[in-house]
Every structure is written in C-alpha cells, then in structure tokens.
Design brief:
152 residues, alpha+beta, 2 domains, 3-stranded antiparallel beta sheet, 6 helices, 38% helix, disordered N terminus
C-alpha cells in the first residue's frame, strides 16, 4: 500500500483562505468569490469605484474578464477601467496625443480626481466617476473628452 504525503498549502501553491480555482492563473490574487455571476461582479466593481478603490476595481474587472470573456458588460467595464497601458498598438491616436502628453505629467491639484480632457485642457473635473459623467452629460464639447482617474 503506497502512502502519498499531503502537501502543505505553501508546497501546493495554495494560500489558506483562498478557494482553489483553475480560473485564476498562478500568482494572481483572487478578488472575487469563486461562485459569482457577472451581474454581481459588475455591482462589486461599481461599489469599488464609488469607494475610490480604483486599483482594486481594475483587479476585479481583470479577473472577471478571465472568468467571463464573452460577457459584453464585463468587456465594456474592462475597457473603461483600462490602466492606461496600450494593449492594441504602440502609437497614440493623433486625436488623443495632447491628452496623453498632459497625462504623462499632471499637476498636483489634479491628483486623486476624475478628469475630462480635450487636448491639454481640463474641461471637467470631479471627485467621483458618477459626478464626472453627470458633468460631461450636462455640457457640450467640441470633441468627446478623454475621461481618466488620476491616482493620488
């Protein structure tokens, strides 16, 4: 009769308190419960954003996109919460070149804020995403502003 030694959590790569899941790649911290539905994920992401936990919301949406790659609302949330790194091309679109130049060195007064840029001009600024969207909807602009959250 053969005896198989039981692996410790450290040896198995599993951390205590985290559910074992093949959906989460090794080295990725699981933010969402293992048995969650897409609608609940979107609610969680909205709450995280409302609580200004944008980095955690980005991790949650990345995890949700791995679990639900075909869900259109999850895909939309992933696009909206992109961390600013280009995933499709190395060139910045000519229309957004000035905005990205401004974002590369934003002033201290804009840190921690949600902003809307047209060129190098801040055309709208708010403390929360909801306030920013409401402000954008209340005004008209020569072109759609680039919306972005600046970390503190």
């Amino acid at each position: 009769m053969s005896h198989t030694a039981k692996q410790s959590p450290a040896e198995s790569g599993h951390r205590r308190g985290q559910p074992r899941s093949s959906a989460t790649p090794p080295g990725v911290c699981q933010v969402l419960p293992s048995n969650v539905e897409p609608e609940a994920v979107l609610d969680t992401i909205r709450r995280l954003i409302e609580d200004d936990q944008v980095a955690t919301a980005r991790r949650a949406v990345a995890e949700a996109a791995r679990r639900f790659p075909e869900d259109p609302e999850i895909r939309k949330a992933k696009r909206v919460l992109n961390d600013g790194r280009s995933t499709s091309c190395a060139e910045v679109e000519p229309r957004t070149r000035e905005e990205f130049e401004w974002l590369s060195n934003p002033p201290a007064w804009a840190r921690g804020k949600w902003i809307g840029l047209v060129g190098r001009q801040v055309v709208v600024m708010a403390d929360t995403m909801e306030e920013l969207i409401a402000a954008v909807k209340a005004r008209s602009f020569p072109q759609k502003p680039l919306l972005h959250h600046l970390e503190s």
